[in-house]
Design goal:
The chain has 125 residues and is of the alpha+beta class. It has one domain (3-123): 2,3-Dihydroxybiphenyl 1,2-Dioxygenase, domain 1 (Roll), CATH 3.10.180. The chain has 4 helices and 8 strands. Strands 2-3-4-1-5-8-7-6 form an 8-stranded mixed sheet. A hairpin with a 3-residue loop joins strand 6 and strand 7. The longest helix has 12 residues, at 15-26.
Length: 125
C-alpha cells in the first residue's frame, strides 16, 4: 500500500467564494467539482474544499486530511495493526472506495482508493 497523494481539507460556506483565491494561490483551476447532496466538493491543487451550510459540513469537519491510497484493503490492515479505529466504511462513493479512520492519537483521516476513471481525470498530464 502506498499513499499516492494527500489533500488538506478546507471548509467553506461557498465554493464560488473559496475557489478564486485558491486558484490564484495554486495557479490551477479545480480538477474536480461535484455535489454530494447538501455539500459541494472541489479538488484544487493539494486542497479539497467542502462547502455547505454549517449543519451540512459539521460532521465532515472532524477529518483533517484525505489520503489517496493505492489499495484500501492494505491501508485498512496497516491502520488496524497500529491501533486505528475504522469509524466509517469502507464504502463506495462517487470518486472511489473510502473509509474514515481515527488514529490511536485521535487524528481522523479519510483514506480513499480512487476509481481508475477518477485517477485518470485528476492526474492526466
Amino acid at each position: 500500500m502506498t499513499i499516492l497523494k494527500t489533500y488538506a481539507r478546507l471548509y467553506s460556506d461557498s465554493l464560488d467564494k473559496a475557489l478564486p483565491l485558491l486558484a490564484a494561490l495554486t495557479g490551477a483551476d479545480p480538477d474536480l467539482r461535484i455535489s454530494l447532496g447538501e455539500v459541494e466538493m472541489a479538488a484544487i491543487g493539494d486542497f479539497l474544499v467542502f462547502a455547505g451550510s454549517p449543519q451540512a459540513i459539521a460532521t465532515l469537519q472532524t477529518v483533517t486530511t484525505c489520503a489517496v491510497v493505492s489499495d484500501l484493503d492494505d491501508a485498512r490492515a496497516v491502520l488496524a495493526a497500529h491501533g486505528a479505529q475504522i469509524i466509517a466504511g469502507p464504502a463506495d462513493g462517487p470518486t472511489g472506495r473510502y473509509l474514515y479512520a481515527r488514529h490511536a492519537d485521535g487524528v481522523q483521516v479519510e483514506y480513499i482508493q480512487l476509481t481508475p476513471e477518477m485517477s485518470a481525470r485528476l492526474w492526466a498530464e
